[in-house]
Amino acid sequence: MTIIVRFVSIKEGESPTAEPEICIDEKFLGFIQIQSSTGEGLTEAILSELEKLKIPVGDMRGQGYDNGSNMKGKHQGVQKRILDLNLRAFYIPCSAHTLNLVVNDAAMSCRDAATFFSIVQKIYVFLSGSTVRWNVLKKHIGRLTLKPLSDTRWSSRIDAIRPFRFQVGEIFDALSEISRENSHTAMAQSDAESLSKELNNFKFLCLIVLWYNILNRINFVTYFYFGEVCYLPDVIDILESTTNYLKNYRSDKGFEDLLEEAKDLSLEMEIDPVFPPFVRQTKKKVMKHRMIRFVILQKNVKLSAFTAFWMYVLILLMRDLGKLSTTASTSSFFIIYKNLKMYQGKQLWSTV
């Protein structure tokens, strides 16, 4: 496990009348071996290392970890055990890590999402698996190239989807050419034809627009998190803004806007902007010796592919927003930090 500390240092001015410089620094202290991954074991390892480094736990004013239950647990986690020792060591979840989990979990939250990303990855693997096929792709696309997915980096998903959002027609043309050209193996032709049929689907185009819009929005949030200066109230504001954006986008108007964007792609693909009927099999119910079947049309497609996904993301974002808001409310310093910008040097130090 790694230990990193962030601390405040005060540097006196060059002259007696000069204002002192207040600096916030972050230092990597090293790796420590872990004998137990429980909250108790990790806490003991952290406290032991801090004691060796002669860093008083009583001086701690915050703690932040990933989203493992052994770290963030509110009853037996590391943050709760250290908070019991020092009530001022407020826990702040790692927002960047939280977003990574939110997006990756949402990608696997429903069958439509999992199927969509599986197709995106299959197309990349197929085209990149042969220099000849990759050259066919390069002949058709000029700006963006295909990217693979990653299980640990959510940003790989926006990188993988962006070419589909803006060049889905060109990707389809590349697959169609491979399926027609006899210079490719029969297996390659068959795979290309199968993958091109997956693209030639209005529902798939809707999912391209859906995922690109949300990932593009979250991508902005992530860049903000990794900025050199990042204040807790600003993090709360941008999370609230993103949450409100998702709430509004989940409305009927948001869904209609999504359909309009997908229709533009359907014109490029020269397909009808209509959802194919989907038949859901239910348990056998005999009624006059007939099977009851339910045909799911556009409204139900919205519920399965659109609403379910947004609800999953919203629940996770609102949960972590609540954690950050609770942390901020425990100290008025975080609330009024913008007003403190008017102070300098000793004036600022005297207000803390």
Overview of the structural elements:
With 352 residues, the protein is mainly alpha-helical. The protein has two domains: 89 residues, no CATH class; 224 residues, no CATH class. Helices cover 60% and strands 9% of the residues. It is built from 14 helices and six strands. The strands form three sheets. Strands 1-2 form a two-stranded antiparallel ribbon. Strands 3-6 form a two-stranded antiparallel ribbon. The longest helix is centred in the last third of the chain and has 32 residues. The protein is elongated, with a radius of gyration of 26 Å. About 7% of the residues have low confidence. This is Zinc finger MYM-type 1-like. InterPro entries: RNaseH-like_sf (IPR012337).
The first-to-last residue Cα distance is: 32 Å
Q: How many structural domains does the protein architecture include?
A: 2
User: How would you classify the quaternary structure?
Assistant: single chain
Report the β-strand fraction as a percent range.
5-15%
Tally of extended strands? 6
Order of helices and strands: EEHHHHHHHHHHHEEEEHHH
Structural class: mainly alpha
Strand order of the largest sheet: 1-2
Molecular shape: elongated
Arithmetic mean of pLDDT = 78
* Poorly predicted parts: 281-297, 332-338
How many whole angstroms does the radius of gyration measure? Answer: 26 Å
Describe the largest sheet.
2 strands, antiparallel
Organism: Pelobates cultripes
Protein name: Zinc finger MYM-type 1-like
